[in-house]
Amino acid sequence: MDSHWAKEIVEELATLEIIQGYEHGTFRPNEPISRMHVAVLFACTFEFESIRSAKVFSDIAPKPIYYEEINTLQQGGIIDGWGDTFRPLEAITCAQVAKILAKTLQLTSEGTSSFSDVSSNHWSMDYIAALEQVEIALGSNGEFYPKTPVTRAELATFLFRALQF
Question: Iron: present as a keyword of the record (predicted)?
């Protein structure tokens, strides 16, 4: 992390005890982050009110550490799965994080996204546009990369900006 662009953000979130690295003192900022880890981070960072009944995901046993966190976000109307699966180990994409952030912050879009790779008919366009309008989503070189897995550093940046909001 010494020369990484997200060093200060990661250190700030670590100081706030929102994120942590690995047991041997590394953070691995450029690695993708899984859907289950994002659920844990959001459940620990934000408060969610239950607005719907629990959904049973066939790929999540009731004992793992992330079970309650996934249920909290699902019952809060923040996350969904695919049919009866959640795919907890799958890397989360930028579009999926945009949905989670926009729903968590209760943001709605007031227009379209200016990112060149987010079409007006993309399923996540409203979420991305909402985050863009409040400068939580800044993109890179005019693109958002909705299908690209989010790295640990990028997620830390999204979280940091969301907490400033």
Answer: no
| Orientation angle between helical segments 152-164 and 35-45, nearest 10 degrees | 20
With CA atoms as reference, report the closest residue to 4 among 25, 22, 23, 30: 30
Residue 163 CA to residue 66 CA, distance in Å, equals 22
pLDDT interval class at 48 (50, 70, 90):
very high
pTM over 0.90: yes
Backbone dihedral region for residue 49 (phi beyond 0: left; psi -120 to 50: alpha; all else: beta): beta
Instruction: Name the H helices within 19-111.
Output: 35-45, 67-75, 94-104
Q: Which residues of 110-119 are buried (b: 16+ CB within 10 A; e: fewer)?
A: eeebebebbe
- Residue 36: both structure tokens together: 């289950």
Length of the chain: 165
Six-digit token string for 98: 């945009």
pLDDT digits (tens, 9 = 90+) for 57-87: 999 988 777 999 999 999 999 998 888 999 9
Domain residue ranges in the chain: 30-164
Tokens representing 156 are 């830390």
Q: Is the pLDDT of residue 1 over 90?
A: no
